[in-house]
Amino acid sequence: MHDCNLINTLNINTYHSYFKRLSSVIDLAFASRSVQNYIKNWHVNEDADTEFDHEVILFTIVTEKMKLIENSLNASYNLQKVDWKKFNMHLQKTKNEMIIKMQRTISLKTKVIYLIECIKSAVNLFVFKQRICVKSKLWWNDELIEMWKALSSRKRIWKRCKTDDAWTEIMRMQNSYHDAIKLIKNQFWINFLNKIKEKKVFQTYKFIKSRLIEKLPSIQNAQKKLKTEFNEKCKTFLKAMYSSSSKVQINKKLLSNKSIQWSRIIEKKIKHAINFSAFRKALESDDMSFAIMQQAYKSVLKIFNLMYLNLIESDYHSKIWRKGTEIILKKLNKSNYSISKTYRIITLLNCLGKIAKKLIAMWLSYTAKTNDKLLDFDQMRNRKQRSAIDAVLNLVHDAQMAKSRGNTLTCLLLNVKDVFDHVTLKQLIKILIKQKILINLINWVKCFLQNWVIDLAFDEERQKSKEISTEILQESSISLILFLIYIRHLFSKIRARIKNLQSFSYIDNIALYVEGKSIDKNVKKLKKMTKIAFTWANENTMQFDNSKFELIHFENHKATLDQTIMLLNDTVVKSKICIQWLKVWLNRKLNFKMHMQTKIVAVTRTLHSLFKLMNSEWELNMKSERQLYLACIIIISDYDVEIWWNNQKSHAIKFHKLQNAVLWKILKAFWTSLIEIMQIKVEISSVKVELDQKCKNYAIKIVELLKKHLTRKWTLISYSSQYSIKLNLNLNTSKYLNWNKMKTIFIFLFLFLH
Question: How far apart are CA 63 and CA 287, in angstroms?
């Protein structure tokens, strides 16, 4: 019926019953006539121990068109067993030849290819791929290998003679082999936990996390039809994530004649870009990590400098670097994952291309720091000393100052829709020219943002490479600062027309607020502001997300207020009692009750996962448990402390309870043990001391900021005129920086006196 032929070799048994002492050919392999001619090397692998009665059958199907290669996605380079001396010596031997060839080569593309090939040749000689198998386990040793070989040999003997003595010997050897595996596993885990130090302690925390992720569900296309097949999902994602772009021609008359002298700064910038990049960043399919690039840079430093100098001076970003693999990941806490916008894209790029991006991003951020006109003073993110905490803290500060003056601060939160999708390259180039950005930077941006080739990867499948037309790549270091430049004029336009209006922005999250005694007047001003914002958005092909507009009045009245704002598209924005901005919950009275509830839930969830390790039979030592607590729990509890901590007893008690539970777990102490003594033994300060320390460190940071910095300005304005004259800000900050030593001394003195 199926027209298949048997491919088993005659008189070779594929089944051995150890219980009945029988052998047979019960396991059969059949193949159709079209495939049978391509099957070769059929045999039984007697060395493979399956622990069952059935043997392992092996055969190969080889066609003329098929070429088998090693899958680079499944195996990465084993950097722990690399002889870096030989690697560096090999590159240094070919150094002079590489420099001569680089100087003679005119084409920039061939220069890039040549450098990649030279590094790859050294990698292929001295850096080997990881080969994952049963024996690659960390606990596997030579003793187990010998026992496994002896057991396999004894089984082969039994298959020939089938005597009772041979059978009992097999059973004895098999039991001892499995007992040895259990014993070695346990000993290895105990030794690992006892000797664990520094960063390796986080490996244990990874063991309790799941490595599996769910497959993507069916995705809706533009017509709201569900797509289930992989290729259909890829088309839907590409249409949703990338907008069409057109070729851009730059009017050279409008450009500045000045250009950057890269030769003076290139060496320091490249060194910083390579050495300060993470080893374990997601890699492209070539698997060339920054660890390999750092070693190569040490050996052939001049070649790196020469290549990047030629590329950047020519305003060129290599086409090889404009290829990438894009991974689709779910955004957290979304209600409907059938919508394509509930996913985010991470692009895996070549490390050499990332270095070029970092050089331009560093120069733009430096220009923004030295030139106040490039970015607005209240734009945060991708700028040094301007974090999300600074943005929220400035908003909270202004709301508290308004309350102290008896006024109400009305705040409207906006969110730019699909940030990178609606940025047009033509408009971006116009803004860069208007901002008098240097000519070679503008040309590089134009080259970088065009002619990209990507392939999507998700659900264990990978799409074929495809050209895309895009404006700004998602989640890129250079993309963030380009977007900040793009929306820079929105804030200056609003402030020019509306007096006493303040604003803060963190990428696409914008807060606009007005202070006044009348809430109605505040709302009217914000309505005018929305008209200006919408007209600007239409002119610059941007859109605001109507579902993310939020309105709140920071005031002390007991009665709730129902003032609303009507947008141009007839969307009504109602005032709320509590809002979330940049992961911080703010209510109208600024008592942070909602924020504390969410924070305690997050800390408790992480704490229970740590208790899994602390409750195990072979648990971590005390130092490792303390290190995990400081790294995983304290980071969550202490984040944004500067915003909400004001010596509130109710907030401190909640954190005290969680910290006490950790101390009891680490020391295995009784519930009646003195908390102060346990804190000293584990070397953990009390909650109040820890929170005060964070706030003091932030206060010192403000004093050390530049006078132009927004937070520094706001701090000076909040003081009264008499106090600000007496205030001496030229403090010797070195006296106050190390609070850790001081807090420990205070605890010991307290216990000594009592």
Answer: 29
Mean pLDDT of the chain: 80
CA 294 to each of CA 119, 272, 539: distance values in angstroms, whole numbers, following the listed order: 11, 11, 45
Q: What backbone phi and psi angles, to 5 degrees, belong to 349? A: -120, 165
CA dihedral angle for residue 283, residue 287, residue 290, residue 294, rounded to 10 degrees: -170
For residue 241, give both structure tokens.
């994530």
For residue 117, give the amino acid letter. Answer: E
Radius of gyration over every alpha carbon of the chain, rounded to an integer in angstroms: 33
CB 393 within 8 A of CB 711: yes
Question: Does residue 295 surpass a pLDDT of 50?
Answer: yes
Whether 325 and 353 have beta carbons less than 8 Å apart is answered as no
8 Å CB contact between 45 and 16: no
Write out the two tokens for 558. Answer: 């007991």
Dihedral of alpha carbons 378, 379, 381, 384, sign: negative
CB 486 within 8 A of CB 431: yes
Closest CA to 658 of 610, 623, 589, 707: 610
Location of structure tokens 């490792």: 624
Coil, helix or strand at residue 30: strand
Helices (H), 411-473: 425-434, 439-448
What's the CA gap between 305 and 302, in Å, rounded?
5
Whole-prediction pTM value? 0.78
Q: How many helices (H) and strands (E) does the chain have?
A: 28, 22
* Strand bridging mode 501-506 / 509-516: antiparallel
Residues linked to residue 413 through DSSP beta bridges, in sequence order: 511, 550
CB of 507 within 8 A of CB of 480? yes
Residue 514 has which token pair?
Answer: 């007005």
* Dist. CA 367–CA 373, nearest whole Å: 10
Q: In the structure encoding, which two tokens stand for residue 447, read together? A: 């080259």
Q: How far apart are CA 48 and CA 540, in angstroms?
A: 66
**Is the Cβ–Cβ distance between 366 and 358 less than 8 Å?**
no
Among 11, 12, 20, residue whose Cα is nearest residue 56 = 12
581 alpha carbon, distance to own chain's centre = 21
Cα–Cα distance for residue pair 476/357, rounded to 1 Å = 9
Alpha helices in 615-738 (DSSP H): 622-628, 634-638, 641-644, 649-667, 675-682, 687-704, 710-718, 721-726
At residue 559, does pLDDT exceed 60? no
**Amino acid residing at 530:** T
Report CA 402 to chain centroid distance, whole Å.
38
Residue recorded with tokens 């190569």:
296
Beta bridge partners of 544: 416
74 sits in the region (left: phi over 0; alpha: psi -120 to 50; else beta) called alpha
Lowest pLDDT segment from 27-36, 360-369, 594-603, 623-632:
27-36
H or E stretch covering 509: strand 509-516
